[in-house]
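User: I want to check something. If I give you two sequences, will you return the structure for each one separately, not as a complex?

Assistant: Yes, each is folded on its own. Here is the first sequence with its structure:
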Amino acid sequence: MIRPLSASSRPALPSVPPLVALALRPLPLLPLELALSLLLRRIGKDHPRIFDRLGAHAHKRFGIKPTDLPFAFVLEPAPPRPRLTVVRDLPAGLDAQISSTLPGLFGLVEGSLDGDALMFSRDLIVEGDVEAVLALRNAIDNEQLDLVAEIAAALGPLGGPLKQVLRAARRNAAAAPAGEGGARWS
């Protein structure tokens, strides 16, 4: 008989430390939205087919909620001007919602985590138009994005040090033993 892992026996995804999330709560969202919008434009420019691959789902609205952060994102990938909005809470009327920890979402984008396994372990919640989410996932997978490299490249000369910090954080998350808040991230 096969038994599913209980929530207490399976390793947890790494998450943003609660004190960091608390410190982020009062910060204004507009600077983050501007920076992420620039990143999204850069990704669209460097990977022009990514949003075209969504086909009929290109004009859907995706809510992305990092469960360990005090804000969320609304992605409207409609080519040629995809849009990303940072919000405190996801609005009603989205076509699909995706929720996981920030490292879980990063791992999904980079392809280092398996979305199906995360869904079965309840570390990833997908609501709404699952077909649209699968189209988004496939479009991202086909482009083999290295999100850390994309972020670093968007920051120009400041990107080098940030890239080292983000890669170190990824390695630390991957090396954290189960039971101590860690799970394989990459």
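And separately, the second sequence with its own structure:
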Amino acid sequence: MDAADSTGSAKRSDWTPELRMQRFKETVTAVLAFLLVASTMVLTYRTFGMAGQDGQMKDAMGVLSLLFGLAGVVVGYYFGRVPSDARAVEAHQTTQMAMDTMRDMSGASSTANQMAKKTQKIQADLDAALDKAKMTPERLDAAGRGDDNDLRQLANIVSRLQDEIGELQGMAHR
């Protein structure tokens, strides 16, 4: 019994004031439409009984002309509403898909920007490493540097570049 009560209260809590008002409007509209169409049909039936009575037939035809117009509007509204509601739902779904795509593209753009910055840093480090690698031993001695120290620096730069390239590959796979 508790499970039924909890689902019943959950269903009741789903009805927001806007949904209740919409339901009320739909109910009133449906009742009015039904009454209008039903009265048109009843008067049409009664008009067949007036055949041959010119005065009453003329009056009945005037009333029926008015009611047929209103009944046509009501029927057109209800039959036209179903396809338009379906199109509105489809348009809403398309909008949601477009927004999701834009969000995904924004994330991809952010990742691409991060990768571009990382690539620029790697390029600068590579340029520095290439400059060191191109130095001849004589130029290194002339600059007063020892070969072992420079080789260690080059090894550190290459190691750091390998790590940064690994980070870039990780970004690319996201």
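Because they were folded independently, the notes below concern the second chain alone. The chain has five helices and no strands. The chain has one domain: 15-172.
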